[in-house]
Write a structure and sequence with these properties.
The chain is α+β, with helices and mostly antiparallel strands. It has helices at 6-29, 39-48, 54-65, 69-85, 89-105, 109-125, 129-145, 149-164, 167-170, 178-190, 194-211, 214-230, 234-248, 255-270, 274-291, 294-310, 314-363, 365-382, 386-428, 431-451, 459-476, 502-515, 547-553, 562-577; strands spanning 456-458, 481-487, 497-499, 523-532, 535-542, 581-590, 596-606. It is 71% helix and 9% strand.
Length: 609
């Protein structure tokens, strides 16, 4: 048996020393004594690692595995330094993401925001849509913590838009959009728009279930419980919050549990159990303090102060009020610093874009000269038609601007109403049926997103979208109504054109306001397409409760329907841009005895010009 060489023995001792330090740090890194780890021990450990590119993997695994925030920051910072040393840009931004998340959890919002903004710049540069969306979502989280809800919502929506652009390529399974839905729901919850909040939380829950993400399901269930708690529906709130805790505790994620405990305490106090409420509030503060969560410490201290004030225990109330002020001021100062950090980042982005623009000008100098010469020739040839072209350009730009503004309204309108449908269905039916319904909905929403970008559709495509929508609503309402489509034989559906998604708006009104509240008898919608002397027409007739009864059920009788406003704008733009003319009207139907028998919508397309 051969003995080890001197170099081998040195290497062996070095590795053994590194393993001992790793064990030491990992042990202390998982408990409350982490702060007692000597700084020189960490330095010795890092120096004991091989000083080559393999150190990056070791540091990343350590920063990811250790729960102590101070140690995570140290390893992530060292990882960034070594990544720059070995010129590994990809690893650098993985460490930067780890650093941002840890700083955020510790309440160091300025540092976290700086990290996330750098991530957004990097992922946009390398055209990584998923990384860019994640960075925008993280920036939204920072602004949400600072209670800047308007800006937070903008970043969440920006992340969702980036992901939905990839829907046709990869499908829902690869979008990772659940967190965006959940965060947007949280904004609406804080803004007291509870119906909208439940729509987004339910969408997040369905998405998390589809991805088999237990942690995400726990978050979504907890947030639904918070909405019910704020609505005063304490029984429902308790069920969802208990379900969330059951998901999260086995996973060791106590971050949201601190929040849920505060709301559970509120439920107990509202139902006349102040002792249990106090216990839950103190437990919430203890968890937040142990994890170093400044925002949650602030909220728990405020809740305890308010609780003791209501119990007329003024000494305890003042004690926790002082604690609340300390953390409130700390977060406020961090918010001001974060705004300065964002301004600096915007300046850096501007400098980088300016350098890129200068390079592009040099590279394309000859091409620009050629383009200018061609433009000069074109201008000389077009002088005689200048007046006519200017008028045409003005009208075209006006039409384009109006269409762009209209598109911006159409997508949210139809998506919101469709999500409202799926919300009701998911809450009332079993998971298997809900999954089938979600599949139909995903196909339909893809068609909506595709068609809403067009001013005009072939009647064939318009009827396809309409029937898909009615199939979904039939499922939601348990086949409470049926529909028929009658088309005159000689009409060519692929050549006739109508304003896009026009029929669905009227059908939507029939289902929601006419047929859905119908008490007795089966509902029916009859769609007819036929020719007339000067063109052709579409008739949509239902046997619902009628507009008068529907208006009486409306909690906002003077509110103008968003859908009908979109119809008016669509028809206006269609008539401005084409020789065909669209007109429509709505009439109420009555029996001989004067009782309401439904509503009829007639859309005429005049082709005489």
């Amino acid at each position: 048996m051969l003995g080890k060489s001197s170099s081998q023995r040195d290497r062996y001792r070095k590795v053994s020393r590194a393993l001992l330090v790793i064990s030491f740090i990992l042990f202390f890194g998982q408990n409350s004594y982490a702060s007692r780890v000597p700084q020189d021990s960490i330095d010795v450990f890092i120096q004991s690692l091989p000083q080559d590119s393999t150190i990056l993997d070791t540091l990343f695994k350590l920063s990811d595995a250790i729960s102590n925030n101070q140690l995570r920051i140290r390893y992530a910072s060292e990882g960034i330094r070594y990544s720059e040393l070995f010129q590994n840009e990809e690893k650098k931004y993985l460490f930067l993401n780890e650093l941002g998340q840890t700083q955020e959890r510790m309440g160091n919002l300025t540092q976290a925001l700086e990290a996330y903004i750098s991530l957004a710049i990097y992922y946009k540069k390398v055209q990584d849509w998923d990384g860019e969306a994640v960075a925008y979502n993280a920036i939204g989280n920072i602004y949400f913590i600072q209670e800047n809800l308007i800006v937070a919502k903008e970043y969440y929506q920006k992340s969702i838009r980036i992901r939905l652009k990839e829907l046709d390529k990869i499908g829902f399974a690869g979008l990772n959009i659940s967190g965006d839905y959940n965060n947007l729901g949280e904004v609406y919850r804080v803004q007291k728009e509870f119906d909208s909040a439940l729509v987004w939380f339910d969408s997040a829950l369905v998405s998390y279930q589809r991805d088999r993400d237990l942690l995400g399901q726990g978050y979504a269930l907890g947030n639904i419980g918070l909405v019910y708690a704020e609505q005063g529906k304490f029984e429902e709130a308790h069920v969802f919050i208990d379900s969330a805790t059951a998901f999260l505790e086995p996973l060791g994620d106590f971050y949201p549990i601190a929040v849920y405990l505060t709301y559970t305490a509120d439920i107990y106090e509202q139902t006349g159990k102040p002792e249990e409420a106090e216990t839950y509030l103190r437990e919430s503060l203890e968890i937040a303090t142990r994890l170093g969560l400044k925002k949650e410490i602030r909220d728990a201290a405020k809740a305890l102060s308010d609780f003791y004030r209501r119990q007329e225990l003024l000494k305890q109330a003042m004690e926790y009020q002082d604690l609340y002020y300390v953390y409130r001021d700390s977060l406020y100062n961090a918010e001001i610093a974060a705004e300065n950090a964002e301004a600096r980042a915007d300046y850096e982005i501007g400098i980088r874009e300016e350098k890129i623009e200068r390079q592009r000008k040099v590279e394309w100098f000859l091409g620009i000269i050629a383009a200018l010469l061609l433009a000069l020739v074109a201008i000389l040839m077009a002088l005689r038609y200048r007046g006519q072209r200017e008028r045409a350009t003005f009208q075209n730009e006006l039409l384009h601007s109006e269409l762009k503004a209209l598109r911006a309204q159409i997508n949210p309108h139809f998506i919101f109403n469709a999500l409202a449908s799926i919300q009701q269905y998911v809450l009332k039916h079993d998971r298997l049926e809900a999954n089938s319904y979600l599949t139909k909905f995903s196909r339909f929403i893809r068609l909506v997103l595709y068609n809403s970008d067009k001013l005009v559709l072939a009647l064939e495509d318009e009827l396809q979208a309409l029937t898909q929508y009615l199939d979904i609503e039939q499922l939601r309402l348990g086949h409470k109504f049926h529909y028929t489509v009658e088309v005159e034989e000689h009409l060519s559906l692929h050549t006739l054109e109508v304003p896009s998604m026009l029929l669905q708006t009227f059908a939507e009104n029939s289902v929601w306001h006419g047929l859905s509240p119908k008490g007795n008898g089966e509902g029916h919608i009859h769609i007819q397409v036929a020719s007339m002397e000067r063109g052709w027409y579409i008739s949509l007739r239902d046997n619902g409760i009628g507009r008068k009864a529907a208006q009486a059920r409306n909690p906002r009788p003077n509110h103008q329907s968003k859908g009908m406003k979109l119809v008016e704008d669509k028809v206006k733009l269609f008539n401005l841009s084409r020789t065909d003319t669209v007109t429509y009207w709505v009439e109420d139907l009555y029996s001989k005895e004067g009782e309401a028998e439904g509503t009829r919508v007639v859309i005429e397309i005049d082709q005489t010009e």
